[in-house]
């Protein structure tokens, strides 16, 4: 992917890591500006992920047509180096995985999926803490990525990719948990049981090879830990743990007492990170006596000033500011500006006012671009309901916002809900006589989600029904036709 340089920040007088990332040029030799814009956008989204287990991102940009990230310099050893150099004690393997789960829990809450979790992206520091590297890099560099389902784009490292990533390019929080299961299995056994002679062979192994129980390969692995790894390695996303928090709770019991790990973890002295964590870990650990209630002070008689009156020009100014922020890919700030103007405007003008609706549409779109899919889903759903009341359920914007709501749910791994919404949307579009191009594309998206959800039977039926229709519409050489054929060929055959 690139190379990391040791650097020095002269202005702030501190060491940094500078990650240069190789990018392909367009056929005419020019740099891919779209990729650069996507990389900057993903870097900004990732920089919002504040967690002690994630290196801070200080800057990003381009230099001589190369992309770069300036990041916190981490002192430590990668898990890939650990695997090359030593046998990892069982409690430390569990402790590393548990810390990764704490990072994933925070990321998944913010609709961020790593997509490329592997030993090379995990660093064990001398104080025993773990850092998770390269959030957002894989999806930023994927060709044709749209951040809604990454359909048809296999993003990640073949040896650690979940089956749904291999088959449909579909990712969710459960895809990260699968990759964590592969890493944990490798830390405990010393080998990646899915690695093949080629990347394609590795990908096929994730689809068709049943995982081997750990205790057949390492006798001192507790039975409960073996069961947890097998749970993480389930082929269907819905059969894996529901969240990183669930996995974290299961792992804690296997790493309560960590043995010495000389050469990698310095157990001597009081490291500041362990001191800090030692206090925080006591929060909520045991019930505390309730303190004496504070004396009730008389209510203040000072009047609260009324909110500033709404002016019609406020919406126009907010949209202008948001437009400038969007031009710089500062989507989160643009959303804050629009949301701040919407509340008083809605109170003054009502939810059906055309200007209010226009700003709400812009807010929903910018929330989606910012990666805030849960808020975006709510906005799209509300917009669809308001516009269906005003313009009728068959209005083009109503159908578009219903599709976007489903895409938001798919982006955060709520596949069952997304499929239900897309199925009902397809029924309505057929009833309304929407043109074939749109319904065919919707059927293709449904099939891709079914593949990614780990339901090959259902996906196979959808794809089999879809193939002759898109062949008749576009011809046998159309990219969508070729993709459907390839997906059908990749599905496991029923016995």
Concise account of the structure shown:
By secondary structure, the protein is α+β, with helices and mostly antiparallel strands. The protein has helices at residues 33-47, 79-85, 90-109, 137-140, 163-168, 173-189, 199-208, 223-232, 244-252, 272-280, 313-327, 331-349, 354-369, 373-391, 396-411, 415-432, 436-452, 456-474, 479-490, and strands at 2-9, 14-21, 57-63, 66-72, 77-78, 122-124, 130-132.
If you had to describe this structure to a student in words, what would you say it looks like?
It holds the Pfam family Pkinase. The structure is a single chain. This protein is α+β, with helices and mostly antiparallel strands and 495 residues long. 52% of the residues lie in helices and 8% in strands. The protein has helices at residues 33-47, 79-85, 90-109, 137-140, 163-168, 173-189, 199-208, 223-232, 244-252, 272-280, 313-327, 331-349, 354-369, 373-391, 396-411, 415-432, 436-452, 456-474, 479-490; strands spanning 2-9, 14-21, 57-63, 66-72, 77-78, 122-124, 130-132. The chain starts with a strand and ends in a 5-residue tail after the last helix.
SSE layout and pairings?
Layout lengths: L1 E8 L4 E8 L11 H15 L9 E7 L2 E7 L4 E2 H7 L4 H20 L12 E3 L5 E3 L4 H4 L22 H6 L4 H17 L9 H10 L14 H10 L11 H9 L19 H9 L32 H15 L3 H19 L4 H16 L3 H19 L4 H16 L3 H18 L3 H17 L3 H19 L4 H12 L5
Antiparallel strand pairs: 1-2, 2-4, 3-4, 5-6, 6-7
Helix pairs in contact: 3-6, 3-9, 6-8, 11-12, 12-13, 13-14, 14-15, 15-16, 16-17, 17-18, 18-19
């Amino acid at each position: 992917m690139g190379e990391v340089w040791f650097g020095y920040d002269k202005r702030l007088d501190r060491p940094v890591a500078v990650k240069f990332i190789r990018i392909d040029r367009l056929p005419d030799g020019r740099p891919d500006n779209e990729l650069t814009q996507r990389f900057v956008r993903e870097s900004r989204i990732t920089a919002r992920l504040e967690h002690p287990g994630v290196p801070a991102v200080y800057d990003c940009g381009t230099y001589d047509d190369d992309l770069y990230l300036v990041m916190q310099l981490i002192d430590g050893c990668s898990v890939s180096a650990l695997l090359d150099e030593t046998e990892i004690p069982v409690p430390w393997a569990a402790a590393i995985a548990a810390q990764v789960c704490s990072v994933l829990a925070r990321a998944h809450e913010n609709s961020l999926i790593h997509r490329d979790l592997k030993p090379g992206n995990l660093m064990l520091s001398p104080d025993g803490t773990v850092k998770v590297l390269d959030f957002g890099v894989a999806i930023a560099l994927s060709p044709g990525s749209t951040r809604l389902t990454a359909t048809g784009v296999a993003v990640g490292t073949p040896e650690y990719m979940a089956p749904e990533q291999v088959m449909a390019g579909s990712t969710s929080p459960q895809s990260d948990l699968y990759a964590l299961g592969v890493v944990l299995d490798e830390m405990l056994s010393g080998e990646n049981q899915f690695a093949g002679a080629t990347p394609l062979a590795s990908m096929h192994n994730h689809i068709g090879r049943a995982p081997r129980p750990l205790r057949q390969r390492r006798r001192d692995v507790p039975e409960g830990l073996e069961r947890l790894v097998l749970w993480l390695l389930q082929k269907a996303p819905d059969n894996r743990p529901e969240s990183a928090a669930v996995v974290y709770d299961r792992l804690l019991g296997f790493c309560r007492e960590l043995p010495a790990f000389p050469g990698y973890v310095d157990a001597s002295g009081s490291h500041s990170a362990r001191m800090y964590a030692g206090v925080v870990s006591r929060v909520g650990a045991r019930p505390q006596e309730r303190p004496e209630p504070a004396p009730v002070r008389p209510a203040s008689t000072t009047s609260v000033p009324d909110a500033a009156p709404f002016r019609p020009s406020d919406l126009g100014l907010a949209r202008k500011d948001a437009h400038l922020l969007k031009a710089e890919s500062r989507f989160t700030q643009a959303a804050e500006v629009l949301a701040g103007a919407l509340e008083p405007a809605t109170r003054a003008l009502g939810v059906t006012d055309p200007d209010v609706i226009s700003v709400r549409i812009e807010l929903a779109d910018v929330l989606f671009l910012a990666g805030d899919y849960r808020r975006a889903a709510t906005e799209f759903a509300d917009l669809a309901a308001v516009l269906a009341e005003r313009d009728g359920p068959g209005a083009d914007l109503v159908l578009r916002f219903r599709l976007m709501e489903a895409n938001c749910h798919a982006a955060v791994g709520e596949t069952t809900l997304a499929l239900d919404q897309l199925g009902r949307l397809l029924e309505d579009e057929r009833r309304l006589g929407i043109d074939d191009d749109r319904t065919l594309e919707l059927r293709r998206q449904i099939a891709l989600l079914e593949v990614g959800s780990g339901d090959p039977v259902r996906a196979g039926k959808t794809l089999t029904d879809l193939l002759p229709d898109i062949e008749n519409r576009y011809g046998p050489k159309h990219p969508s036709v070729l993709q459907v054929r390839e997906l059908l060929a990749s599905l496991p055959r029923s016995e």
